[in-house]
Each structure stands twice: as structure tokens, then as C-alpha cells.
């Protein structure tokens, strides 16, 4: 097969979408497929010749994000030269919309995936007034593709209630050989950050941004640090809310910025508990990575994390409407009880090992083959 993937975020950006799509590309290429990836230009050479970079601008208030600049004549030319059998549009903004329309005109089969809770993000960025318009656009966009791949059952049910059709569950996997508790760099990371052997390191991994509920998390971590002096919060990631969070937590937490690859895996392994308070996750890749690294996770039981963490077995899932003090209490329960922490850690690792990228991406590849084998039209009919 010849597959074009269109996305407004890709490596070297560090987020769940970029990691998921890079795993998809690897699986397709290992299966003998030709892959083209169309993504914004991040000012660095692409990771392979397969990539077509689109000129982009950084967002002043969020420099980690790049907006591709229309018009997209070069994109259309690149697609024509590659001659894909199928196009997978992973993001719904201007670049995705332009390719969506072009694929329909050229009658190239097109599928999509849903990754982000845009309506919840709209509240955080003070554009909640546009929520109805956003949902109408997203419903139109995805219902005009043959299938929409959704990362969790909770997200699927929510979309179905809003009139989305042709939804297919596409969960996430984890590389349990990379993310594991016995990483060779574990002790070196702990030493370099000044952690003692009996310290209990509580890690957060992800964007440091308001949509990740980091203010709630900071309040909980501050309470944990006050009540349990051996607790050492570790913030792995970066984003626009980091300066405020550093000021708020003072010397209570260690901030190390973005990590990737072996460095990220060693950082997970250096921790003892994972704390993640986001309420906007369609899945929550970092939760599964933490579990593979042998960390029991404390999460809010909403969206994707509620399906990943089994309360009392692989971590603790807290009522999402609970105050930060309740979340802090759950972290303390694991920090103070070593046997409980180790039991949940082992069970978390076992669950994560059963979620392989190869199986999950192979299933998606089978969906592509079925669509092409059925001789489907370019887009799903409306009506």
C-alpha cells in the first residue's frame, strides 16, 4: 500500500499524537508499505525522505506549536507525485481541511483520526463561546471520511452522542522494552537530580499547560510535599504554564524540561509514583508509558486514563470532581505504603506489557487493507 499521513504535529514535537503517528509510520514501513508524511516545517531536517514539510509559523503565546501556512500548492503537488492509495488525516485544522477537500476531488480514499478534546480546550483558552461551531465543524469533517479512528471507548461514546459516524476504536500501545523499571540509567538520573535512596519520587510527564490541569496538580503536589518530606515531585515536560508552576511550587519540585527516547525512559524509571490530573485526554499515552516503567499511576477517572488505570489494581483513579486534597491523599497512600506501591507497580507493568504497538498498529493496517479491498468511494456519504 501507499499511505499518506497528514498531521499538524509530528516529530520532533513531543506529544501523544506525534508519538502515535511515528509508531504507525514505523509499523507500515516494516510491513512493506510506502509512507508519505505531510507536516509543518519545524526548522529542522525531517527524520526521513518520506516527509514533506509545509512552511509554518510559531504561535507567539505557545511557541511549541507551529501553524502551517496556506495556500498548500506544494502539498497538492507532493500528493500527486506520491500517488497514495489512501490518505489518513490525523488533524482537523487548515492543513487537514485542505487535504480533505483535495482527496475528495481526486477521489482518493480518506480516513481520519480523533485525538484532541477541542471543546474542553476551548474553555481553557477562553473561546468557549465557539464550542457549538467547533462541534459542527468536527462532525462535518469526520463524517465525510470513510472511518474515524478513536483512542478510547469514552471518547467514542461521546462522539456518537454528538452525531459522529463510522467510528472505529484505535487504542494506543507502548514499547515495554524501552519503558521498563530496570532501566540502566535509573540510578544515574536519581543521583544527578539529588534524590536520595529513600526519597519517593512522584513524576508528571507531559505538556505543562492549563489544559493538562497543572494548577490542580500543583496544589496536590504541594500538599503531598508538606505532609510527606521524603516526597520529591519531578516535572518532566515544558509548556506555557511552566514559569507560573515553578514559581508556585518553589523548591518543592524539580523541573527538567522535555525528555525523549532513552533519556525519557530513564526518567520514568527514576520515579516511584506517577501523578496525572488531566481531564482532557482522549487516551493518555504517558499513563501507559509510566505503567510500563513500573509506576502505579494516580489519575482522575475521566476520559482515556479512566480506561487505562484499574483502581486498586494498577493505580488509583480518583473522582474527577474531587478537590486537590483528595488527589494528594491518593498520592500519599502510595508514597507512604511501600508494599502497596510495589504491588500496584508490578500489576501496572504486567498490564502495559500486554499493550504492544505492533498489535494495535497492525490492526489499523488491516482496516486500511479492508477499505482498499472493498473499493470504497473517496468519502463517506452524507445522509
TrEMBL record:
Protein name, entry field: GDP-mannose-dependent alpha-mannosyltransferase
The protein's Enzyme Commission number: 2.4.1.-
Sorted UniProt keywords: Glycosyltransferase, Transferase
Sequence ranges assigned to domain Glycosyltransferase subfamily 4-like N-terminal in this UniProt record: 14-177
Gene giving rise to this polypeptide: mgtA_1
InterPro entries to which the protein is assigned, alphabetical: Glyco_trans_4-like_N, Glycosyltransferase_grp1
tRNA processing keyword on record: no
Keyword Glycosyltransferase: yes
Pfam families: Glyco_trans_1_4, Glyco_transf_4
A single MF term (Gene Ontology): glycosyltransferase activity
